[in-house]
Amino acid sequence: MPSANIMIIVAFLVGVVRAASGNSTSSFEAPTLVSAVFHYDPSKVAAIVAGVLYSIASLCLFTRLFMNKAWWGLCLPIASTFMAVGFFMRIPMATNPDSLPIFMVQQLFTLLPPAAFLAFNYILYGRFIVNCVDRRYSWIKPEKVARYFVISDITTFLIQGGGGGLEASKNVTSEKLGANILLAGLVAQTLSFALFMILVAYAWRGLLRDGFVPSQEPWGPILWILMFSSTAYMIRCIYRVIELGQGNGGYLLTHEIYFFLLDSLPLLIGICTYIIFWPTKYLEMSVKPANEMTGRY
Fold it and tell me: Where is the signal peptide (predicted)?
């Protein structure tokens, strides 16, 4: 698994770097829907590489999930599959740059699935606190963490979805309004996820304060993979906010390579973390005896 994971990342980087040069739209051509939004011609090669690698990651995650019967984590491989579809949709989008349905499907399938990646971390955090340590290490009731943050993500999900739909309009006013709505949704999602990372750090600090050494505990890897994957997801969130904050024609938006290196790649690294360190075994190794449990998650 680890070697396959490294190969996925290397293949992603090679494919993107080879495909991302020389794909800007000529200023003498009539602008299409895609060029009006992105200001470049999407690379089919990069889309294929990303789509294939996300498909492989999805297959690996589904395998992990079914082998461990961890149905609570189903959101992760499903979302990864939708991401793969989103990348594959960039291929017909490059061929039919004025197709509104293709553009909207591609946008929604690459913008929205990461919310499910975050949801997986929320659920894992709650199960970790309840099953492995103690509720007092979380300043939000662990049983409600996933509920609160998923509600937040659903809200930002709907905001981003509405903004993404308006952004596809050829009407300048609607396009700008859609971009602003999309930016607001991404900012809200970023702040919400930052709060979650603070929650994880708070629990980690409390455990260290009480003398626990995570590297010596069976549940220790859960803290590391939670924080590592969350950091990767946060890179994507910050990139998206800066990209949209620069406005139509901004440097990040008009260079496709940054979409792959600062958006798609961090997300891929984050979900591939769970291919190597599927958390079920750490949760099962660390479950407290029944007489120590104060409830069930």
Answer: 1-19
175 φ, ψ (degrees, to nearest 5): -65, -45
* Phi, psi (deg, nearest 5) at residue 288: -70, 150
- 107's CB contacts (< 8 A; 6+ apart) are 164, 167, 168
Indicate the pTM of the whole model: 0.82
Structurally, at CATH architecture level, domain 2-24+32-292 sits in Up-down Bundle (1.20)
Note the pLDDT of residue 115.
86
Question: So where are the chain's domains?
Answer: 2-24+32-292
Angle separating helix axes 114-132 and 172-209, nearest 10 degrees: 20
The Cα 33–Cα 200 span in angstroms is 42
C-beta pairs of 147-150 under 8 Å, 24+ apart in sequence: 149/118, 149/119, 149/122, 149/192, 149/193, 149/196, 150/119, 150/122
Q: Which amino acid is at 55?
A: S
pLDDT digits (tens, 9 = 90+) for 87-109: 999 999 988 988 989 998 998 89
